[in-house]
Amino acid sequence: MKDKLEKCFKGTKEIPPRIIRKKPDAGTAMAHLEKVESNILAMEKMFDEKYFDWTIVAAYYSMYHSVLAALRVIGLDARSHECAILAFEKFYTKKGKVDENYVVYLRQAKELSEKYSETLEKVKTMRVEASYGTGEIKSTDAAFAMTSAKEFASEIRKTVHEARGIGYYKMR
Question: Which of 10, 82, 83, 145 has its CA 20 to 30 A from that of 66?
Fold first, then answer.
């Protein structure tokens, strides 16, 4: 994990850094939390209409924007899903700020999303034209993703609000 995270900060000859150190920014963190709420509403509507593939995608994105909010609170601007998750693990999970189960939820939601779409990257870059597999999507998978996303978002919301009230977390 350490080598991968270092590459995220430093980049390579071919790829620019995918995590940029900036000033901690509660405003941007709150904007990500607003996006989380929007994704949760979409996720619930998709679930009610039995669009379980889109439920899973919206669940993943609500969790991903939660991670982005948490990172902005400590002054990190992530430009890649993988790097965002690695940084979240290091600066939150490994330091005991959130339960390690939430990283497991995030990874499982990502796996479910990838299972039903050609790739998560395509969903990320083409957002509107995501192409899904033809296999049956189980409501239990969608329900799991939805519940996990709500719990995860709630935990991150507490963290961001706490940081706004008592100052920003130190990364080291």
Answer: 10
